[in-house]
Amino acid sequence: MRRENIRRPEKALSARFVETVTEPGKYFDGQGLFLRVAKNGARQWVQRITIRGKRCELGLGSPPAVSLATARKLALENRGTAILGGDPLAAKRKAREGKTFAAAVDEYLASKLSEFRNEKHRKQWRSTLDNYATPVLGRMLVSEITVQDLLRVLQPIWNDKTETASRLRGRIENVLSWATVAGHREGDNPARWKGNLSEMLPKPAKVKKGHHQPALALSDVAGWWADLQKREGMAAEALKFLTLTAARSGEVRGATWDEFDLGDAATSATSATRRAVWTIPASRMKNGREHRVPLTSAAVDLLDALPRLNTSPYVFFSPRGGMLSDMSISAVMRRMQEAEFKAGRTGYLDPASKRPAVPHGLRSTFRQWAAERGYARDMAEIALAHFIGSEVERAYQRSDILERRRDMMAAWAEFLRGEGTLGDNVVTIGSAKIIGFE
């Protein structure tokens, strides 16, 4: 039987040594605590301890998530528990039972968010985990999450949303590190970058920068929209609503019924007469500011036809009642493109990159349409929930021109149906067409 390389230092380990050691082996510190270094460079704290007359080993997590000082503290606490007749191993196993990733996120953030001084940073932490990680990992036990599960979360967005994906990976790593220290999981952290995910994903700095999300050509919009109307299912409905509102995927997927004021259907003859509004709270917005979206009759009709699930707050819910994943909406567009290819057509390609259009690219399509139809830049930018002007200008421009945008979104809905024409509120100056904006 092969014996591991055991290193017994003349004195206790140092933080610097723990940080730099690479040679495989066991490095002892005290209280039965030692650092195990594997051939692939993975490190883990382990404590040898006698519990009720039986010698065993306890995993205490991995550096750098678990520092030398923390490992020593845990080892001392375990030793004290064992001396008093307790069973730290059984306690650890009990604590590990049934802890899902979603629950771990809640507990971790409850203790850590207060450390962030920036309110926007706090909101982004929760938002990225809720939008990208929880739909895939939420119901899984943290003890069962593997590298392959992390890849299911990260690969779909690694190239197109590299910065977001990189931050997301780090945040998942922190949550799982907390879960390890809290005794809910053992072993190496599957979200670790160096010597782990770095071998399976391209370095963020090497991913091509500056390319835009593939968008629909304006000439393809009506055909694509007609094709989408034939699609059924909650993800298809979410994509339709996303298109009608020019909203982001996360904003649509996270929408709850209490965010909507659909007007009074009882006193309005049709959906066209209902001044419906969707108010997205600041906590769910990328820019950290509340955003109001005027809903056209087409959007209201879509919402009126949706089923409601008593056990779910979400407007567009997954089969189990949770939030739809970003991949589910992307899959609708991917299947539409695949059907085009099978029919021998080129399909819905970005006119510049020649890549298949994606959901986020629809916002670019809307922006191009608004520019070509002569809508004022600020009006289109507000519709997309982008910041406009300088901070001083934004302080004075407090109106979100909701009703003016309602007319613009109605014209956009007409364009989707192939009925789009220039509105009446157009002033022609030379060859330029400008739609009024005050």
Q: Can you offer a commentary on this structure?
A:
This protein is α+β, with helices and mostly antiparallel strands. It folds into three domains: 6-95, Double Stranded RNA Binding Domain (2-Layer Sandwich); 101-206, DNA polymerase, domain 1; 218-435, hpI Integrase, Chain A. Helix content is 42%, strand content 11%. It has helices spanning 15-20, 68-83, 88-96, 101-112, 119-137, 147-158, 162-181, 221-229, 234-245, 249-253, 297-305, 326-342, 361-372, 377-383, 391-396, 402-416; strands spanning 6-7, 25-30, 33-37, 43-51, 54-59, 260-261, 277-280, 291-294, 426-429, 432-435. Strands 1-2-3-4-5 form a five-stranded mixed beta sheet, covered by helices on one side. A three-stranded antiparallel beta sheet has the order 6-7-8. A hairpin with a 2-residue loop joins strand 2 and strand 3 (33-37). Helix 4 runs antiparallel to helix 5, helix 4 (101-112) crosses helix 7 and helix 6 (147-158) packs antiparallel against helix 7. The protein starts with 5 loop residues before the first strand and ends with a strand. InterPro entries: CB, DNA_brk_join_enz, Integrase-like_cat_sf, Integrase_catalytic, Integrase_DNA-bd_sf, Integrase_DNA_bind_dom, Integrase_recombinase_N, Phage_int_M. Residues 99-180 form the Core-binding (CB) domain.
